[in-house]
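To: structure subgroup
Subject: Chain for Friday's discussion

All,

I'm putting the inputs and outputs inline so they're searchable in the archive.
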Amino acid sequence: MTEKTSPGPLRLMLVDDHPVVRQGLRAVFGSFDDIEVVAEASDGAQALHLLRVTEVDCVLMDLQMPGVDGVTATRQITALPDGPAVLVLTTYDSDADIIAAVDAGASGYLLKDAAPELIMDAARRAARGESALAPEVADRLKHRTRSSQTLTRREVEILELLAGGATNRAMAKELFISEATVKTHLVHIFDKLGVDNRTTAVATARERRLIR
């Protein structure tokens, strides 16, 4: 990612599949003299196409979109030579979503109910190459890092499939692993969450915001 050092307004791209959300964000950002919305996209594929012809300093990225989702798009954008910073702006605050976005290269993560001033400050910091995590997100990542009972990415995937009602066989097929491996993961998940069955594991994971 190339940090913004040139003078002029901060050039933003809005990526969200809801036109009304993009319209609202554009209206809010219009009150800031040092910020300009230069492009809008309804999914990750369109965003990547527009980046070929548009100079952008920071992308405000939704996560859940049809087609190319926000995490996939973030990974592809941050892999570009001199690609812009990506600031995730979403309604989802589960640990799984946060970790996936940060692992994909997002410079920041905010919820859509954040104050406009906070979003603008985060966009400026992301464009400068700084971390721009919401305080509560940073705290949760810090706690997760320190915890010896942290779930692995694969264990989170198992839990998400479990929440959808998948059987061990279905999970094994989806993740390209054996049923025995699924059972081993479940044992570790139950131990880390302090539960003894699938239903309680899902309920506990949702309560702790480990999954949606």
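Points worth raising on Friday:
Residues 179-193 form the longest helix (15 residues).
The chain has a mean pLDDT of 87.

D.
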